[in-house]
Amino acid sequence: MALQALQSSGVAFRKILSHFPEELSLAFAYGSGVYRQVGPSSDQKNAMLDFVFAVDDPIAWHSKNLKKNWNHYSFLKVLGPKLITAVQNNYGAGVYYNTLITCDGRLIKYGVISTSILIEDLLNWNNLYIAGRLQKPVKIIAMNENVALRSALDKNLKSAVTTAFLMLPESFSEEDLFIEIAGLSYSGDFRMVVGEDKTKVLNIVKPNIAHFRELYDSTLQENPQVVYKVQQGRLEIDKSPEGQFTQLMTLPKTLQQQINHIMDPPGKNRDVEETLLQVAHDPDCGEVVRQGMKKTVIYSSLKLHKMWKGWLRKTS
């Protein structure tokens, strides 16, 4: 499995993990505190460490974590693990974050997500939030033998590659591919226009080409629609309508639906397969997929915003 190549044996990460309940299906660290970036986030030594913990039973996990780390939580801690889990599952992207925590001398934040919700996001890109993070190099600290989760992690990488292929020309470099992949979860995200460094994607990819290559090597080697010239760092893909249709049919469900909404005239109500066949023959196929990605991310961002506004109204 491609992700196993990036599993970390770092003592520092394991020491931090020892402060939390052990029942984790997946734990990983990500971001500028883990992998070097250029630009404003280049101070790796002092950067906050970001973690995500996937758990099979969030109520039980939060219950144990409240006993171990009561001070990590906001005011919600007084309402108990059931309410915290309800917020986690129903508001935002299915993740509950505790932030600005000092642990073993490092500033950290950590998000908790249900394993089942994570699997759905990896397969269908419902939110492309944690799935988007897992399309970039991360440090896997712990992972159990959940076959469905491992399969979904692989599918997420394959989906990222396929989506990028559809937006790229017939021949391109590894760096071109990794820039497209790293930018998927930022497509249409207002944070890339307001507040965050607009060159964030380049800053992530350029210092970490080797890590991206390691993450995606087996996915690319096994893909029958690509000629991967490893020594030259070049790739060639099948851009025929038949090849593009095959790729479109394997895209995550949410992205397929967004493409259908873009292409389906009002009142016609064509099924998704018919729309994707039309897109496969369209000279602007790549641009249609790019617009579908933007709508996928915008929809997710708006959903997060509305859910948090609703939660704030209920708690005010």
Order of helices and strands: HEEHHEEHHEHEHHHEEHHHH
| Cα-to-Cα separation, first versus last residue | 46 Å
Mean pLDDT: 88
The portion of residues forming beta strands comes to 5-15%
Radius of gyration: 20 Å
Strand order of the largest sheet: 3-4-2-1-5
Could you say which structural class the secondary elements and strand pairing correspond to? alpha+beta
Q: Could you explain how this protein is built, in words?
A:
By secondary structure, the chain is an alpha+beta fold. It starts with 10 loop residues before the first helix and ends with a helix. The C terminus is likely disordered. The chain has 13 helices and 8 strands. Helix content is 48%, strand content 15%. It is globular, with a radius of gyration of 20 Å. The strands form 2 sheets. The chain has a 5-stranded mixed sheet.
What is shown here, in short?
By secondary structure, this protein is an alpha+beta fold. The chain has helices at residues 11-17, 58-68, 81-90, 115-124, 130-133, 147-167, 174-183, 200-205, 209-222, 241-249, 253-263, 272-280, 285-315, and strands spanning 26-30, 49-55, 95-103, 106-114, 139-143, 171-173, 226-229, 234-237.
